[in-house]
Amino acid sequence: EDKVVQSPLSLVVHEGDTVTLNCSYEVTNFRSLLWYKQEKKAPTFLFMLTSSGIEKKSGRLSSILDKKELFSILNITATQTGDSAVYLCAVEAFYNTDKLIFGTGTRLQVFP
Amino acid sequence: NAGVTQTPKFQVLKTGQSMTLQCAQDMNHEYMSWYRQDPGMGLRLIHYSVGAGITDQGEVPNGYNVSRSTTEDFPLRLLSAAPSQTSVYFCAAGISGRRGTQYFGPGTRLTVL
């Protein structure tokens, strides 16, 4: 059975800290891994990763994929209170590109 | 462009009642889907559609029906609501085969008593 596991489940940090969120997966015929940020409402897209070892970066956020060890990390440097959210990881498989398999998410709280 | 809209935002039902959650998109995307989000469970796919007239089941389809008569609309029907269907429901639209382009609606919080 395909599955996506995120850790930690929750994280509390102070502004300025650096955090690393983890996502491991067991998916047959892996195609891509996606990261989303969910604040109070709908998830919003952050990154899509398809190749190992290539870092995707957007401001203070960066992510990398390891297809050999079957995991991805999402790094946030110099955290701000606006980074407080649930971060979701999802995986897409080749055999059905219309289905995303989501992890349970990591809840990040950043305090001033 | 409104993107993906969902109505209602909140709904309370009694067990056994039926209702339809509405989802509309103005981006002309082929792919639309419904997810439910429960605490500790992440997002789970209920049904999806790759175009008008085509629907398929996701991970948790039982108790839900969908139809796709137009590109814009993808309603989700609960025929006989159960307390286990208490959840937050998200509709999404995107380009089929390119999941990174999936845009989510604001969600509907449903409580079944």
What's a quick, concise take on this entry?
The complex is a heterodimer of chains A (112) and B (113). Chain A has 112 residues and is an all-beta fold.
Set down the secondary structure blueprint.
The complex is a heterodimer of chains A (112) and B (113).
Chain A: E1 3-7, E2 10-14, E3 19-26, E4 30-38, E5 43-49, E6 56-58, E7 61-66, E8 71-76, E9 85-93, E10 96-102, E11 106-111
Parallel strand pairs in A: 2-11
Antiparallel strand pairs in A: 1-3, 3-8, 4-5, 4-9, 6-7, 7-8, 9-10, 9-11
Chain B: E1 4-7, E2 10-13, E3 19-25, E4 31-38, E5 42-51, E6 54-57, E7 64-66, E8 76-78, E9 87-95, E10 98-104, E11 108-112
Parallel strand pairs in B: 2-11
Antiparallel strand pairs in B: 1-3, 3-8, 4-5, 4-9, 5-6, 7-8, 9-10, 9-11
> Which residue ranges of chain B are poorly predicted, with pLDDT under 50 across at least 5 consecutive positions?
none
Number of DSSP-assigned strands of chain B:
11
General shape of chain A: globular
User: What is the chain-wise order of helices and strands of chain B?
Assistant: EEEEEEEEEEE
% residues in beta strands of chain A: over 45%
| Helix fraction bin of chain B | under 10%
Tertiary shape of chain B: globular
Largest interface: A-B, 20 and 27 residues
Mean pLDDT over the residues of chain A: 92
Number of helices of chain A: 0
Which structural category fits the helices and strands of chain B? mainly beta
Largest β-sheet summary of chain A: 6 strands, mixed
Explain the overall architecture:
The complex is a heterodimer of chains A (about 110) and B (about 110). With about 110 residues, chain A is mainly β. In chain A, about 0% of the residues lie in helices and about 65% in strands. In chain A, strand 9 (about 85-95) and strand 10 (about 95-100) form a beta hairpin. Chain A is globular, with a radius of gyration of 14 Å. The mean pLDDT of chain A is about 90. In chain B, strands 2, 4, 5, 6, 9, 10 and 11 form a seven-stranded mixed sheet that branches. In chain B, strands 1-3-8-7 form a four-stranded antiparallel sheet, with no helix packed on it. The termini of chain B are far apart. Chain B is mainly β. In chain B, about 35% of the residues are buried. In chain B, about 0% of the residues lie in helices and about 55% in strands. The interface of A and B includes residues 42, 44, 45, 48 and 99 of A.
